[in-house]
Amino acid sequence: MRIIARKTLRQFVEKLRGSKDHKAVKSALDAWFHEVLHAEWNTPADVLKAYANASIVGPDRVVFNIKGNDYRLVVAINYRRQIVFIKWLGAHADYDKIDVKTVTYGHQTD
Known about the structure:
The chain is an alpha+beta fold. It is built from four helices and five strands.
């Protein structure tokens, strides 16, 4: 899979620098990135085989739990082109403030 845009992950980790979660979130996101980079997903069922705790929220939208569900990562997947688009990343509490089916890259909660 190709992942657009890793920069989002790096920026999020950088915002956490100095917090107690920084290292754990960085490690979790790095692991997620490398696992997905080597994945071959053709359907949402393929995603669930690799990530049983992921939530399929539409034909192309998937929510991944990061660091024991403290954080959420929302992506859109184009299965035909093998591309994962990062749409949103944030704390679980902030996740409740977004519409997961329509949130777009760059959206920030207050």
